[in-house]
Specification:
Strand content: 15-25%
Structural class: alpha/beta
Shape: globular
Distance between the termini: 37 Å
CATH superfamily: Queuine tRNA-ribosyltransferase-like
CATH class: Alpha Beta
Helix content: 40-55%
Radius of gyration: 20 Å
Number of domains: 1
CATH architecture: Alpha-Beta Barrel
Number of strands: 16
Number of helices: 15
CATH topology: TIM Barrel
Length: 376
C-alpha cells in the first residue's frame, strides 16, 4: 500500500493536497489528534467524529500509540475485537506510532536487538524489537504504521546522533523484511539526525533509499529551539520525495506548524492542544487563555467571541471557570473540544492561504500572536 501524495496547490515550498490511504483521503496539511490508548483523553470518539462532520473539513487521521496498546489491553485483544477501527469506533484513517518516542521519554535499555522497557502499568519488562513493532501494528490494523526508531534527546553529541541514525536505519531494514500487510497498511520510515544539518540530509537519503510509503521527521521538539529545528526540517525535506507524504512528529505549536508547512511538511501530531485543555488553558485567536483565573468567575461570554465550536456555543466562561476550579471532569472535555476545533480552523486557514498564495502573510499573523520574535 503506497501512501500517494497528490498536490493541489503550492506556495513556495508549502503544498496543499491529499494523501491516499486504505480507508480514504487525508487532506493536507493535516493535524492528527492523539488517541494514545484508543481515545483522545477526555473526549469520546463519537464527539471527535462530530467535530469532523460539523466542519467542511475536519480531522481525517487519528493517531494511537503502539507501546501503550501492546501493554493494555494487548494487540491480540484489539485484533479479536475487530482491529483498531472497530475497537475505537473511529471509521476514518488511523496511524500508529511504533513506540520510538518511548525510547526518548522512558530511557529504556537500547541494544542492536531492540529497546527493553519497564511497563508503565506494572513494571514488567518488555523487549520491543523492530519485528515486534511491525507485528503489533499489523494486529492493531491502522492504515499507517511507523518503524521503530531511536529518538535521542537534544542536545546530544555527534556520536549519539550518528548511533541513532545507524540504529534507526538498521531497524528500518528489519521492519521492511518483517511486514506482511502490504495491501492495506502503509509503512513510514523515520529520519533522525538531531539538528546536525549534514547528518539530517544523510539520514533522509538513507531512509528514502529503503523505499518507504512515506517519511517522517523524528527527533525534534525534544529540547532544541525553533531556530535550530527549522533548518533541520529543511535539510530533510530537500531530500524527501515529492510524491510521498512528509510527516513531522511531535510538533504542534501554531508557529512551528505554519513554519514547517512553509518548508514542505504535510502532516503533524502533538498532544499540546489536548494537554493544555486538561489544565484549563485554551487556544484562541488572541493567544493562550487560562480559564482558571479569577477574572473569569462572572464572565458571561464564550471562550472566544465569534467561535462556532460546541463549547463556545453552549457554555459561558464563568461556568467553565467554575467547573475547572472544582475539578469537574466535564471541564476537560469542554476545553478539549474547543482546542481541537481551534486547531481545525488553523489548519483550514493554512490550506486556504496556500491556495491563495498568501502563506507568508499568514506566517506573520500567527507569529505576531504566538511568538512576537521572528521565526528562524
Amino acid at each position: 500500500m503506497i501512501a500517494e501524495f497528490t498536490s493541489g496547490a503550492r506556495d513556495g515550498s508549502a503544498r496543499a493536497g491529499s494523501v491516499r490511504l486504505a480507508r480514504g483521503e487525508v487532506a493536507t496539511p493535516g493535524f492528527m489528534p492523539v488517541a494514545t490508548r484508543g481515545t483522545v483523553r477526555a473526549l469520546p470518539t463519537h464527539v471527535l467524529a462530530g467535530l469532523r462532520t460539523a466542519n467542511d473539513a475536519g480531522f481525517d487521521l487519528l493517531l494511537s500509540n503502539t507501546y501503550h496498546l501492546m501493554l493494555r489491553p494487548g494487540a491480540e485483544a484489539v485484533a479479536e475485537l475487530g482491529g483498531l477501527h472497530a475497537f475505537t469506533g473511529w471509521d476514518g484513517p488511523m496511524l500508529t506510532d511504533s513506540g520510538g518516542y518511548q525510547v526518548f521519554s522512558l530511557e529504556p535499555r537500547v541494544t542492536d536487538e531492540g529497546a527493553e522497557f519497564a511497563s508503565t502499568y506494572d513494571g514488567s519488562r518488555h523487549l520491543l524489537t523492530p519485528e515486534l513493532a511491525v507485528q503489533v501494528q499489523e494486529l492493531l490494523g491502522a492504515d499507517v504504521q511507523m518503524v521503530l526508531d531511536v529518538c535521542p534527546p537534544l542536545p546530544s553529541s555527534r556520536e549519539v546522533l550518528e548511533r541513532a541514525v545507524d540504529t534507526t536505519e538498521a531497524w528500518a531494514r528489519r521492519a521492511l523484511r518483517a511486514r506482511t500487510r502490504l495491501g492495506d497498511q502503509s509503512l513510514f520510515g523515520i529520519v533522525q539526525g538531531g539538528v546536525d544539518i549534514g547528518l539530517r540530509a544523510q539520514a533522509a537519503e538513507r531512509t528514502v533509499a529503503l523505499g518507504f510509503d512515506g517519511s517522517a521527521i523524528g527527533g525534534l521538539s525534544v529540547g532544541e529551539s525553533r531556530a535550530e529545528m527549522l533548518p533541520a526540517i529543511e535539510a530533510a525535506v530537500a531530500v524527501l520525495p515529492e510524491d510521498r507524504p512528509r510527516y513531522l512528529m511531535g510538533v504542534g505549536d501554531p508557529v512551528s506548524i505554519v513554519e514547517a508547512v512553509a518548508r514542505g511538511i504535510d502532516l503533524f501530531y502533538c498532544v499540546l492542544p489536548t494537554r493544555l485543555a486538561r489544565h484549563g488553558t485554551l487556544l484562541t485567536d488572541g493567544g493562550r487563555l487560562n480559564i482558571t483565573r479569577a477574572e473569569f468567575a462572572r464572565d458571561p461570554g464564550p471562550i472566544q467571541a465569534g467561535c462556532t465550536c460546541p463549547s463556545c456555543t453552549h457554555y459561558e466562561r464563568g461556568l467553565l471557570r467554575h467547573l475547572a476550579a472544582v475539578d469537574e471532569p466535564a471541564a476537560a472535555t469542554i476545553c478539549t473540544i474547543h482546542n481541537l476545533w481551534w486547531m481545525l480552523q488553523l489548519i483550514e486557514r493554512i490550506r486556504t492561504a496556500i491556495g491563495e498564495g498568501r502563506l507568508t502573510a499568514l506566517r506573520a499573523e500567527v507569529a505576531a500572536v504566538w511568538d512576537p520574535s521572528p521565526p528562524g
